[in-house]
User: What shape does this take?
Amino acid sequence: MAQFQAVKGAKDIFPEEVVRWHYIEGVIRSVTSLYGFSEVRTPVFEYTELFQRGIGSSTDIVGKEMFTFLPDPNGRSITLRPEMTAGVMRAFLQKNPGAGVPVHKLYYIADLFRKERPQAGRQRQFTQFGAELLGVSSPAAVAEVISMMMQVFDTLGLHGLRLRVNSLGDHEDRMRYREQLRSYLEPYHDLLDEASRERFEKNPLRILDSKNPAVQEIVAGAPKLLDCITIEGRAEFDRVLGYLSDRGIAYEVDHLLVRGLDYYGHTAFEVVSAELGAQDAIGGGGRYDALSKELGSNSEIPAVGFAVGMERLIITMEKQGLFATLCPHGPQVFVVLQDASLEDEALRIADRLRRAGITTETDLAGRSMKAQMREANRLLAGFALFVGQDEVASGSYTLRNLRTSEQLSLSIDAIPGVLLESSKP
Ligand code: AMP
Assistant: This one.
């Protein structure tokens, strides 16, 4: 075993797998651009208070999952970002102080850090892609964000995903519901597990999404949050559902869906994959109009967004066989040299081909021609170009197609054109 291993809960990603990431990232970039979203990048760390205020101190993330440190003995506490929404809103408020905010459509693909117990689909460093629509959170805006997320899944070919939606109402609705839920759960208090009993005090709504079957049985009979929200809130939620039906997006209203972060209100949603086992959520989001004020803005900035876990997306795609057609790209050509005396000539040729825009490999290790050919095949090179004494003397080089074994004799000037032509789809 190597002396050093990656830190528990963090993973290395090698080129074979990076191909998959690039493919998914390409789909994300093209679908988000169809909806007019542009990429935002924010720092990997933020002041700890941002997350305490933004996500809420009673949440699991802030309570026990943050990687927090002091940059210097007298410095302000800093935390590696456990999610993106608070940081994006912070960046937005910093850049646009004051009111009069136009609509902003932002997306990201970003590394995040949470001190969770690592298991399949749960890491301590992981990646999310997500989007934040700032400045509007009307039912049409909520539906647009959900549509965009579902279009990414559709474009990737995913099937069997379930979209669960619920309305969390406004702050007063939730306060009313909290008390109803506490009264309902009171007689069962001793039957709740430890985590739920802790939540009973701090954040009873989170008991609804417990994974413990015994707790699930208890909450099955609980009053419904949706029955506690105002007529206006209910009408808005119905409009969101109407837009989704209109676009042919299947959904289930799930009364137990609450989401783990404090800043959500009104519509919340989650997408689950049957392929994922215990950690079945692939992504989720909702409206978070309250966040901007929580972070000190004078005016409320309506907002809606979502985040999808890239690793869980990849696990699901793998189980559904969606990477089967994704071939790794080899170099277009491998320059094979007859012997070491031709190294300078071979490097000049490789340089010329690369400048002409052709992906080119050559031998840097003084290997035999046979070993070079093995390497060309291992790398899945499209062609081999032979550089020998005769070729250099005559100016005519052999170019072999490694798929068909067809060979051509060509002058060095003609080679780039032939290679470029052959790589056209
Ligand atoms: P959340 O912000 O907690 O709702 O997470 C949104 C999505 O990010 C989840 O549905 C997962 O797909 C992914 N995710 C969250 N936490 C982790 C983690 N520790 N490891 C891998 N993926 C995660």
Summary: Residues 83, 114, 116, 121-123, 126, 128, 260, 281-284, 307, 309, 311-312 surround adenosine monophosphate (CB under 6 Å). The CA atoms of residues 168 and 266 lie 5 Å apart. The chain has a mean pLDDT of 93.
